[in-house]
Batch of 3 targets.
Target 1
Amino acid sequence: MSLFITFEGGEGGGKSVQAKALYRRLSQLAIPALLTHEPGGTPFGKKLGRWLKWVKETDISPLTELMLFNASRAQLVAEIIQPNLKGGKVVISDRYADSTTAYQGYGRGLDLEMVKATNNAATQGLKPALTVLLDIPVEKGLARIKGREKDRFEQEALAFHQRVREGYLKLAGDEPERWLIVDASQSKEKISQIIWQRVSQLLSRG
Ligand code: TMP
């Protein structure tokens, strides 16, 4: 059965760990699944993503970020997500269009209507059936990634990360049927259990 699930959240919320755990669980149950991530997921997206996260020698404007994340996304949707959904798989994406709304819209302050229109063009209107938000207070999330080399986003001020978090919570509040907000300060096992409960419900509905 095809199902599109995305994982979202600020830094240090553990969404990649949970996306992988869900993928493993589905695979163990022999449910055809695919795990991808943004920025990346295609050879083109990987190059763009690495550059967007790590470039040091030039400034990148918020509008350029919006366009480039969506360029990567357009390729991922066309090359990977849509064909695999058509093939009947559960497609899990570690970040998707809501990341752009949270980071470039709420974080960078770009016009939200413009962000929405650009996201829609890149995704061809494809929306997830379920979006899991791993929500954690900003200071706690950033403390978890302390000590590792920080990319352009992780280096941003606390206020930026606060806007990103508030943006996610606003998005989730506007569309509660699509979003599952999970308190990311709980144990990994507990979080996996909460997510699995919702995913198995969706799967059993067929
Ligand atoms: P990650 O690979 O650790 O999730 O890092 C990706 C970074 O890129 C993260 O800080 C969020 C940022 N990002 C955006 O700003 N906009 C986007 O559309 C996406 C997909 C990611």
Note: The chain has one domain: 3-205.
Target 2
Amino acid sequence: MATKINFNGEIHDHLNISVLDHGFLFGDSVYEVVCAVDNKPCYLDKHLARLFSSAKAISLNIPHDKEWFHEQVEVTLGAADNDESYIRIIVTRGTGEIDIDPSTCHSPNVIIIVMEIKKYPESDYEKGIHVALVSIKRNARDALNPNIKTGNYLNNVLAKMEANKLGAQDAIMVNSWGHLTEGTTSNLFFVRDGRVLTPSLDCGLLSGITRRMVIQLSEENGFHVEEGKWLGEELYGADEIFLTGTLKKVMPVSYLDGRPVGSGKPGPVTRKLMRLYRDVTKRKL
Ligand code: PMP
């Protein structure tokens, strides 16, 4: 069980990074979180595709190709050698002047953190978690597009703090028009009258890798998924709610703003999709 940190291709046990890195100063960076089992990363190709597209969206030139990332993730996983690992791949703008202008940064830094994964307790999957619809709005797409996975997560941090204050484990955010978007680190699905619904990407949310897989799994197993726009209040009428993400996987929600969702226990559609997702990810390894 170990933590290893790869900094531009060199592996360390600890890492100090310059305070002049614009990733630190301004959140000027992109990142991905990937899981690994027995030192094999899950869906690394999909995460690298999103990392490169996030970087492109903020005009950050990653100084390596995807093959390099595959190799570096593999050696860092080997050095840490955990049964199950959390991998965080970060590319920052690099060091520059203490000024917001990125043109003074000439060399992006690539950091790969590998540590033992902290899993959600099994009881969360059995009972479901509590969430709150918070007042903090998800960033507008024409301000900081939530579909770019940058290191600037203050919007989500504020939402999470509001949820904590309300005694909930996570927050659901709406956008400036009041339409449902996503959780702080997960995508949102809900079930109404047997239909599986999820906010569409144009509501302003991250195109989650787990979200895409759950949509595909649902369709393959006879559940039609509708992507659309729903007002926040419509979530109170849901029979079931669940969140999806690399770390959460398919996570049932049993309480919304202190009120039970459906029976207050994970519903049948959620349980089926939890099972299907677990099976398909196991088969992939
Ligand atoms: N939305 C946000 C804001 C996130 O941070 C994450 C986690 N990366 C997700 C959704 C879920 O994405 P994924 O399934 O790719 O982990």
Note: The two ends are 20 Å apart (CA to CA).
Target 3
Amino acid sequence: MRKILIIGNWKMNLNTSEASLLVHRLAERIKIHRDIEIVLAPTMLTLQPLSLQIDRRKFRLAAQNAYHRDEGAFTGEVSFTMLRDLIHYCIIGHSERRHIFNEDLPTIRDKVSAAVRNDIIPILCVGETKTERQDGETKQVLHDQLMSGLANLTAKEVGQSVIAYEPVWAIGTGDIAPPDKAAEAVAYIRNYIRDVFGTRPAQKIRVLYGGSVTPDIVSGYLEIPGVDGFLVGGASLNYESFSGIVESARKWQRRHAEVENER
Ligand code: PEP
């Protein structure tokens, strides 16, 4: 069974002392779980101090973004090469980067390649806007984002990556994708990986759901075949809700293991 993966995307929130306090509170509440991996994605500014503070058996770090070139005259940017000793993961292609910062498909493809080249696991975010959904274009959008985002990776590298299915209309809105729609999208993603890269990467790759996740929806979404965890935005800024999400996942996993054992 794939490990459950829960990622907290803090976006552009929390200064250094606030971030440190949140990690402290989370560490008090969250135990080490062998079968659940918890990743925190703070701002670039706080990655370094948090890397010294965190218990690495409990938490791993992700960047929210990085630049695809390794070094040079790129004012204001930070490269994957500079981050490689600090982080395990990097969020790439988040809808806020696609839509607010106009990151296009080739930019996202180059970032995914740069992450892998630097031994950082890409968390490639894919998902349709409300209009695309209403126009029946969800699968086409997922197809284009996957085809381009994974274009330079080998089958083995794809298997080690993470895809976050995040319908844009569900991010930060409180509107959660109906489970049957999320199930359809996740199945489409895994089938795409299987058809293009083969069965093994399709079985290995972790696929997350993201979009207004709260502790209440965790067990229902973990029941969806092929969902391996969550990319959490707003709820990850509050230690009670984020640790509640981890706790709900732990309870679901325990129940699931019991049911499997009885079979
Ligand atoms: C996100 O930022 O990736 C996200 C899913 O945000 P939220 O949980 O707030 O919808």
Note: The pocket of phosphoenolpyruvate is lined by residues 9, 94, 166, 171-172, 210-213, 231-235 (CB under 6 Å).
